[in-house]
User: Fold these one by one.
Assistant:
Number 1:
Amino acid sequence: MNIPGRRPKTVDQFGESHNIGRSTVYEEKKRGRLKFTKVGRKSLIYPEDEDAWRELCRADEPNASDEKRLLEEVVVAEDVRDVIDIAKSFAKAIAKLPARKRDDLVERFSDLCAERTPNK
């Protein structure tokens, strides 16, 4: 389907428009989240495939309430095994994110934990 006014993008154009590198674009394709269409030697990403990818990213991205809930669970956990279970849930929640977003979220989560941890 052709969307008027929007043209297919090459891998480089797609990466530039979403501020991600080529390797991340290919990683998204490998995961099955982004569809490419080969035209000769070029890989093109059509607007409808770009829109579908954006929706997947929005659906997979943890929101602020998820962060707060996980943080509260860590703070009130009394047993080390509980903390380990929470950490596993957190790892699963962010596993599908691109590396840069995942690293940013882990850093933010660590900062929040450090702020909430009482000083000894």
Number 2:
Amino acid sequence: MPKKYLAFDLETAKVLPEHVSDLLAHRPLGICCAAAVASDGLQPKIWYGRKIDGTPAPRMTAQDAQALVHDLHHEVGRGYTLLSWNGLDFDFNILAEESGLRDECAELAANHVDMMFHTLCALGYFPSLDKAAQGMGLGAKAAGVRGHQAPVLWAEGHHSEVQEYNVRDAQLTVALALACERVGVLRWVTRKGTLSAMGLPQGWLQVSRARALPEPDTSWMQDPPRREDFFRWFRTARDKDERSAVERPTLEDASAKKVMGCPRCGQRLRVPLTGASLRCPRCQNVFHS
């Protein structure tokens, strides 16, 4: 039975020089907008922050990013498999930082399909989304906005133009996944202009399964990318600090003596033995111990 995909892509907010290649070195990058496109043809979903007057904000707040994480979890619960091209190392990495929900984003990332990461695990290298789309007969990415221009255009007020670019990238991602699974192979245009291919006998694999593939021979490469580097943001010192903060409830008496789960989201919290009104840091639900 074919997967029901929901392709996810976000655009960062920080304006950087055009020549910058390592965006993550300039974090925090912020998020100006995000988009998701379903393989069953439903209307694209778009997220962005709003000012008091309802117009788009320069970047999404932590609360906006948290709502985005919860929406993605909801879509997974509805049976969708999240899909991306480099979402493991970039999109979910950024979303984790901006939302503060690192564990939740790590769960989404590990269980989604990142076609670029699958290709890396199988071959030891990967093509660009654009070259893969060309190889599968989907054409090149549409002319117009480029990734490095999106933050500039958003800051200048060209919000619709950036959102359209964001949606097009998500549409191309889901079109590529479906095209590859129909024929059981990924084809891409190489730097020499020839076609290369990788078989997909089991279709696209979720990140957790792709990670378990046998290591390919990369002895011919000078500095091959390592799959484990894509997971560094899963286990940082900041992750530990945030996990401790999530476990600490908002309460007047901070003497924590027992552990119980939030009735709404199940987050485990340390609470006093005596009854107290508590607010869950994850979902903001108020309940009594």
Number 3:
Amino acid sequence: MRPGRRDRGGRRGRRRMTSERDAARDSQAMAPMRWEIGDITVTRVMELPTMAMEPDDLLQTTREVVARHDWLKPDYVTPDLLLRANIQAFVIEAGGKRIMVDPCVGNDKPREGQLFSMLQTPFLERLAVAGYPRESIDFVLCTHLHFDHCGWNTMLVGGEWVPTFPNARYLFARAEYACATKPQGEEEAAVYRDSVRPVMAAGLVDLVDPLHEIVAGVRLEPSPGHTPGHCCVTLESRGQTAMITGDALHHPLQAAEPDICSLYCWDKTLAVASRKSILEIASITGATLFGSHFPEPTAVRVRKAATGWRMDGVRGVRGSATSE
């Protein structure tokens, strides 16, 4: 996901914060959600309430295409066929380590889109409530280095960007980091300056190769296309498997229509190939997929449909991690 082209004071201002109609429901929806994959725990921590947006603000598609797939309602699309999407991070507990995956947008960061610029959210407080104070994180893994997947790499302290997770090693795929050092525009340059370069300067970054194993049962899986070095995260424990998709899949609509890409894919042919491979393997193996922007149900299982695939939700458990 990237700052919206229509989120810059332009046409219709069509993204809107929706899905929660009152404060109590909002609070419940923002609570941590946990799943168990064998001995591995995955916890979702949200940064912003669920959004609803025009399909063509995120994907190269229309409401007419969305309307073909009734199974997307009511969880993944609104009654008027807007796409629901989350900004959220995952924390993996495995092998006695805590791995933060895709730390969202971050506070105080100037971004092109009004919706995501200069945020002031209690994300770190939510993370602590979930059982993961920032000092307890051992690894930070960015599936790719777009602004909404690496923003909390750093925080603003005394006018300087400093690492948010001071005791963690930050893991970037080599190809992804190489791309980030050569930004194609001011937005990309800003992300590098405030969310990537400071952790590199602090000596906290390890550049890793595809298929890198972080701890036993947790490894990277190359999935290029959305960006050059995009990686998913594969989890395996006690015969169960799962994957955190990053932006290989932005929305469940792309299971039904896998040839549809986001507006922001670097190589659409590669993106489609990566997506179809993920969906096919998940449908055969029964792996759980965690969609990095999927609203609830954020975790899904995949099955073949007459055309493409469809998804069935895997409900998690609300609440904090078990105290050690």
